């Protein structure tokens, strides 16, 4: 079960993963978010699948332990909430 | 018909688009490519759909004139070859 703050993330199955879409006012805002996200990923050595265009970013957090699980790990939830903080 | 240099790009239909996958040795190399790509996109005001992970980038160049065409535009081919130059 996701915590209260995480309502914008969607839990998916097969494989278990967390997904969220971010939308921005401008390409510059999208780039700034991606730059911050890049630093966070590098610091945590976690590399989610990221797709983006001019004013959107879609994130997919596949469970850290490569699919042998059917539950969202605490690691994934922590990563998701750290990503949320970039936008606050 | 794509020019000789563009053999790594794939032409797709419905909608007409160009796709290419780039692979890199490290996350740092992936980030460097994305930074250069970001500058190019901003300078040309063209924003392809980009998806990436630790060591790959997938690019989709949807035709510049929003789908009313069934041919890859010269604009798209020019953009594709400029993107190729980032890697040379």
UniProtKB/TrEMBL annotation, chains A, B:
One of its GO terms (biological process) is tetrahydrobiopterin biosynthetic process. The keyword 4Fe-4S does not apply. It is an enzyme of class 4 (lyase). The keyword Ion transport does not apply. Its EC number is 4.2.1.96. SUPFAM superfamilies: PCD-like. InterPro entries: PCD_sf, Pterin_deHydtase. Keywords: Lyase. One of its GO terms (molecular function) is 4-alpha-hydroxytetrahydrobiopterin dehydratase activity. It catalyses: (4aS,6R)-4a-hydroxy-L-erythro-5,6,7,8-tetrahydrobiopterin = (6R)-L-erythro-6,7-dihydrobiopterin + H2O. Belongs to the pterin-4-alpha-carbinolamine dehydratase family. This is 4a-hydroxytetrahydrobiopterin dehydratase. It comes from Prochlorococcus marinus (strain MIT 9211).
């Amino acid at each position: 079960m996701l915590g209260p703050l995480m309502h914008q993330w969607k839990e998916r199955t097969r494989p278990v993963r967390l997904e969220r879409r971010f939308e921005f006012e401008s390409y510059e805002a999208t780039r700034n978010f991606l730059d911050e996200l890049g630093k966070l990923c590098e610091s945590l050595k976690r590399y989610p699948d990221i797709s983006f265009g001019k004013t959107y970013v879609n994130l997919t957090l596949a469970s850290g332990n490569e699919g042998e699980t059917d539950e969202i790990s605490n690691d994934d939830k922590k990563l998701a909430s750290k990503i949320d903080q970039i936008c606050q």
